[in-house]
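Justification of computing resources. Each target in the renewal requires a structure prediction run like the one illustrated here; the chain below, 370 residues long, is used simply to show the kind of job we budget for.
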Amino acid sequence: MNREKTLTFARTNRDFISTLNKRVNEYFKSRGIGMQGNLEMYVKTACMFAIYFSPYVLILTGVVSSPFAVLASVLVMGVGLAGVGLSVMHDANHGAYSRKAWVNNLLGYSLNLIGSSAFNWKIQHNVMHHTFTNVHDFDEDIGSRGVLRLCPSTPWKKIHRFQFLYAWFLYSLMTIVWLAFKDFVRLFHYHRSDIAKKQKADIKREWLILIGTKLIYAGYIFLVPILFTPWHWWQILAGVSLMHMVAGFILAIIFQPAHVVEGTVFPVPDSSNSLENDWAVHQLLTTTNFGNRSRWFSWYAGGLNFQIEHHLFPNICHVHYKHIAATVRDTAREFGLPYKSFDTFMGALRGHARLLKELGKKPVYGIQRS
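Resulting structure tokens:
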């Protein structure tokens, strides 16, 4: 079944997004600037790649050799790996980095460079998550994950009672799962379900890219250090695993509070598979900002703490979100619509933890499974 075709949004509140689009467009027009990346974005891109690759080169060349220094370098690589995903790959795969499609495509493949799949990301994130945010069985970000229950419609299990404790460790495994398992499962699923075909993809080409880039990644992250450093294979494997655990944890705790947090909504379609709000209002109900006043956090998080702006305008580069946020907030309030925001990142994390605990409780009504 092609789920993207079966779920529809209401056509109410159209004046909100129309008015907002005019005001945001006027912001860029009045200043004579583009919606894509600028010098700030280019400098950030260089910084993120440097944070990731510089420690790798230092380890490889033996400049860094003591166990403590190597460990510190691995941790820094994890921060850089997450930074490339947050601040470079994300905008590029939304087509927001540059006006030139080839630049977006090239930098979008930075996700493959760090071990995952740009093609899978575009379908799972751009198509499903950004369209049907927080809708069970449509948004894969809140899909059933066995020991994690991230949506009230997900079947409850006894183990979920403790998810507010163990979820944080599982978050650290996120990119490891992508690297070793999930990318292959997803591409197979997108192939068999015809989702890839509907995206006009050449599935043979995508399989070649996936396997080829996985081999390239394994070559430079595993094989090259084995050949050119004194470290044993198991030590290198442990270091790479630790790097990915750092990156996975960072990515998860930045993405999760944007949608799986206290106060968010998990819309349920009616019997005709229709949602009660239009797409823009749906985004306001299911999305939350956090930590917008912290400049360093906004810089590192790729503007994803301005998640409302990102969901309403995914085609705009994140370096502009802080400048249009007031317009989005004021327009939402003018139309009597919510604009949800936590003052701090830690406040949002606590809100996420509380929702994890609430979703872990056995439902009084609804779907249950022990």
